[in-house]
Amino acid sequence: MRIAVVGAGYVGLVTGVCFAEFGFNVVCVDSDARKVAALRKGIVPIFEPGLKGKLRWNQEAGRFAASDDLGAAVREADIIFIAVGTPTTPGNGAADTRFVEIAARQIAGNLRGFSVVVIKSTVPVGCCRRIEALIRETNPKADFEIASNPEFLREGSAVDDFLHPDRVVIGVNSERARESLVSLYKPLSQQDTPILVTGLESAELTKYAANSFLAMKVTFINQIADLCEQVGADALEVARGIGLDERIGQRFLQPGPGIGGSCFPKDTEALAAIARDAGSPISIIDAVVSANNERKAAIARRIIDAMGGDAKAKKIGILGVTFKANTDDMREAPSLVIIPRLQQAGARIAAYDPVAMGVAETLLPGTEWKSDAYEVARGADALVILTEWNEFKTLNLERIAEEMKTPLLIDLRCIYTLDEITGTPFIYHSIGRPAVMPSLRDSVSVISA
After folding, report:
1. 211 Cβ partners below 8 Å, 6+ apart?
2. Cα 343 from chain centroid (whole Å)
3. Which residues are catalytic?
4. In this predicted model, what pLDDT tens digit does every residue of 20-69 receive, in sequence order?
5. What CATH number does residue 184 fall under?
6. Do 412 and 321 touch, CB atoms closer than 8 A?
7. pTM: predicted TM-score of the whole model, two decimal places
8. In a domain? residue 94
């Protein structure tokens, strides 16, 4: 079976490489000639653990190729995935599907024989049927079927998520499309992965509903953490206590500085827009969007409050700027709100991130970039852990404290236990837990939004 993937971004590249890993012949197409040239050399334009090795392995095996010739790739393909971006439309939060439509028109003119055109991009409900109509209008003689196959990849573990998913969702409106895609995912069904076959609209909505539910879960634990600070509870203990209920589960119950990345912020806004347009607004998702937007600004205020309410002319060290660990993705990262607000308050920012400094440099002007955490800490009035990179979990805390002008540690990911901090010189603040003071280790003072 021959596969063409249109779009060599995050989703498209992972999809193409992993289908090649299954043993299929894959051509990943992108209009960016420089990206294609890099991929042909085995250079991966994104940081995603395991992706580079599998790309090179499958290139050498002759199963994966990168190309900027969409026509040639489509004409040879049995299944064509559209995996282009669907950014948020400014003003209303709806997903912008123009790149999907452009890809569909280009595909339509190059269809030869029977093919299944699969929308992998995250699109509003009803988009697959509109794309089907667009292709038929562009090429009335085309022999094809449309399908929806939403992705559920987590940045930082996308390769493993693709190869060992919780489930695969396939939306179809014909038996031919169902047979093709069930056959495509046979390597997963043989390892007992659930393959859910639905209608087109159900598949499209499943993607938005899943991400919005997870975003709601994160927002919930963030607000519970705020409550914990006010009543003297420990948010990590509460999260553990509710997460042990199998109806709730442990995942996505880690309090932090707010939701970021390419999916959760975009998809919650898009679902809210879909619901409004359908005349069935989802107020709980509207609240999630609002709460997350407010949280990032509130976190900046927390940092300033922990410094006595004044950050003017003070040096603040930032550890990690990506929205989560194990990715170089800066989209909607809390750092993009928090750091500028600290700068507006007069602070001087020094920062370090293991992989994203090259990307972040243009996004966070005025930031001093350092080579490691200890350089960031040198002479700092406060040190803020903003991303939960593993290397920040094993810092020499005594050395960090010695480097700092004031040993104030603000741990926005709760990567240290209160016991680990006890005995260090730090004034320690975290999310949803009591603050720890060097002279009063049992303190229950907190900073609140």
Report:
1. 263, 264, 267, 268, 271
2. 26
3. 263
4. 999 999 999 999 999 999 999 999 999 999 999 999 999 999 999 999 99
5. 3.40.50.720
6. no
7. 0.91
8. yes
